[in-house]
Amino acid sequence: xxxxxxxxxxxxxxxxxxxxxxxxxxxxxxxxxxxxxxxxxxxxxxxxxxxxxxxxxxxxxxxxxxxxxxxxxxxxxxxxxxxxxxxxxxxxxxxxxxxxxxxxxxxxxxxxxxxxxxxxxxxxxxxxxxxxxxxxxxxxxxxxxxxxxxxxxxxxxxxxxxxxxxxxxxxxxxxxxxxxxxxxxxxxxxxxxxxxxxxxxxxxxxxxxxxxxxxxxxxxxxxxxxxxxxxxxxxxxxxxxxxxxxxxxxxxxxxxxxxxxxxxxxxxxxxxxxxxxxxxxxxxxxxxxxxxxxxxxxxxxxxxxxxxxxxxxxxxxxxxxxxxxxxxxxxxxxxxxxxxxxxxxxxxxxxxxxxxxxxxxxxxxxxxxxxxxxxxxxxxxxxxxxxxxxxxxxxxxxxxxxxxxxxxxxxxxxxxxxxxxxxxxxxxxxxxxxxxxxxxxxxxxxxxxxxxxxxxxxxxxxxxxxxxxxxxxxxxxxxxxxxxxxxxxxxxxxxxxxxxxxxxxxxxxxxxxxxxxxxxxxxxxxxxxxxxxxxxxxx
Length: 539
Known about the structure:
Elements: H1 12-59, H2 73-77, E1 161-163, E2 177-179, H3 194-205, H4 211-220, H5 227-240, H6 242-253, E3 257-266, E4 278-288, E5 291-299, H7 305-311, E6 316-319, E7 335-338, H8 341-354, H9 361-384, H10 389-415, H11 423-433, H12 435-438, H13 452-468, H14 474-492, H15 497-507, H16 514-518
Parallel strand pairs: 3-6, 6-7
Antiparallel strand pairs: 1-2, 3-4, 4-5
């Protein structure tokens, strides 16, 4: 506060000194006020930014696109921006020629059986007014799709008994009755056939239909199968599939690249933990790029130890997001740790969505997104040209690497200009921190710029979780992981889920050696040659 003397001196010199002092104090207070104003304005802008982000998360589109409607809007509304001049520039847009799809209903598959129903006119109407008989000159055909509800049948396994009526077993040291052994089954002494088990597990883990809904469906068909029974069958099936899961893990660790991701899962009855405590489902994707393998693994923690225990002595590339639990990968000489450009783009998209329409930050965000868009444009070019791994590396070195170096320089310059706590500041900081991982893919032709392969692989589990909400026990969560591993591996290798599971459950009880188990892996089967072996006569 400015101090005002109670009595002004008569001395002009002293009076000038007081006036100068008061003027200096006023200027200092004005500077402090302006500094505080800028500070609080910046804080308010950060809060407004967070509010806009929360509103977008609650009520906005889940898509990461900035604009709705036609995807072609991006071609016009988001031009390439010169990093040095963050202003909108004119850009020529070349739209590739395309052919318009013919409108109308798609024809029904020819493979479906046909039942013909003839709608003919009455016989008396087949006479012309002149008295002559009408002749058939053609027909009009329209097809309707019909469906018959699932047919449930009971398969009676009959095992004849044989004994000797002559000696009554004397020659065999007592009565002897000979009978064929019980065929091995996934669920011993249970009523579930391979087909029923495949149907239930496909509905649960491929179609995200919880057991309690399936229970109601079976009730409408006149069969009582409780949800607890179905859960028990699933756990027995998972137990029988353990040898296959170990082989899948080996396949993943033998490949050149492993993609890792994780998501939450709630387990109600876990010893020593509250029902509301978060547990995690991990996904590991890898193996032969032409015959991909996936392993889901349940763990009560998100610790990086889960990933460390899986990869063990693995040598190759591992791609993850920026979660700190994966930082241990940077310390392993045998592993090339790759980052995810999709997460980088997501953070800049958050800044774009939360930013004010009048904010100057939008120009900076557009610059960053322009660089990332160029990066993916080059990757699309390589895919269209069907380049091999060596050609992809050469293309990245010649076009992507120089462009990313300019991007890094721009980020370092921008990091000194933006508010660190703002969404743009966090996006810039995240990108720079992840930079060694983000550029690692440039040297690896079979790697992609992002970890979307793992994220896409874990999405079916997320969809299922929205329907069945939680797992009852850790054993149930582990069984779910086993089923997802086999089903998603089958899907990524082009197999029909039901056909594969039925084939697996029909043949798995007879497998004894590692080679026999390996022949049952989805990668070893051809979709066109996947034949269900069991056939029964109807009595």
